[in-house]
């Protein structure tokens, strides 16, 4: 569809794309196996459990993909904390006051209260929100999940009511993550009129320069400055 | 005088028994004489309604019977003094009660006896179950009332559609289900004659309707009836909360059959059994999820729902058997309230009870309820966490949706 000769930037490098695939596959399977249990008393919950090979197999699948998710997140963290290149990238996710201002500005713009469009850096407030949402969600899900997985150990060290609360947190936190990803993220990556039917970035990692200029003008300017310096050298 | 006492005794005994002996030897016809005619297979007579009645009695078979030493004319006592043969055709009905007085008295009080005496001939009398000339001792496996043969004897009527319908008896399917029960199979498949057959639970001559307080099937009597064989279980049961309640006259409390079934009783290893691990929650919940009963006795309700919501319940529902059911924690015959220090679910015993499956479960673990409903009164932590998430998620969704609506609104308005 796009002219291949048009210039683009690599926004989403191969390791991140791979992590993204691992993340969403494990999360989809975790949702399917998790909701099957949470809604076991409904007909579709029962159907899911049977599709997943019965009660025991459902649990096994859930735990296997929980391990996949935990390993992916751990891998990601080692990468962004200990490699300079990715650490710089990671720092761009730092929430700033500007993000809130951007949100306000965007709303004003949509409401036609102002004609000024918020100018984004590499990651806008939506993307930052989503990133930190996934991080905190995975942390909560992982921690509560491990407590429930190693139940005999947990029973030895904590009262039952803590485990009851843990189970509630695991269920609702999962629901929250599911809703954020499947409503919000699907909207932003697929249904948003700017990218419909799909933002291809998750596959090829690319963003056209003209799109970059429009959607992330601050990053674009930064890039132009750098390339000018580069070409000047 | 005293010197002659033994002699006098001997003479007296002789005087008492001699005539009896002599008369039994001499008066009337002997059995052999009767068989002389009655062993003829063609011997028959016409009844009042014109039916042909065979009068054949096989001497060999009769001499195997429990009555082999009883003379024909004892039962057919209107022939006692007869001298001319062939004797008159229609004889008096044989009265078993002449000898079996006790059995008849109990039969006369029974469901069968009451109707039989009124003259209803669809209802069994002595001969219906025991036969006539060839009655064997009940120890004899061939006897119609022996454990092995008895089932057939009773089902002759109780599986007869016409009779079942006429007297509004329990359905044939229900009667038949006994054959598949552990008791029925013990008899038919394993030949274990000590297993319970009809008369062991229902009585024999004294069968009464369940609402009769003397009936073996009356709720108050059932534990005792089962205890005839299952004595050690009974001694546990009477100590349990259910047993104590029954003994104190609380009829709502379960007896053996409420949990185990009656005709369908099966080993807990049978998937169809009411006490199979998978089916236990449903069996207990008949009472423990019943609003009326739980309120009447002030016992906690919704036990089934809260169990099903637990991991144990879910796993059990989907067919896992290595998971806790009601009995795993509460016991079965020995169920006691948690306040009793011998109860498996007493706070002090919980680490041990849970520890059966979860080694390492501590006293600390037992803090908190097992059957949790996310209600403010019963589980504060669970309630607030849940409320928090419900609000948090709802607000977040509202924000998302409004943001998306706003964006689309702006997008298309500017496009126009």
TrEMBL record, chain B:
InterPro entries documented for this protein: Multihaem_cyt_sf, Multiheme_Cytochr_ET, Paired_CXXCH_1
Keywords attached to this entry: Membrane, Signal, Transmembrane, Transmembrane helix
GO MF term list: oxidoreductase activity
Lineage top rank: taxon: Bacteria
Domain annotation Doubled CXXCH motif: ranges: 197-232
One Pfam short name: Paired_CXXCH_1
Protein name, as recorded: Doubled CXXCH motif domain-containing protein
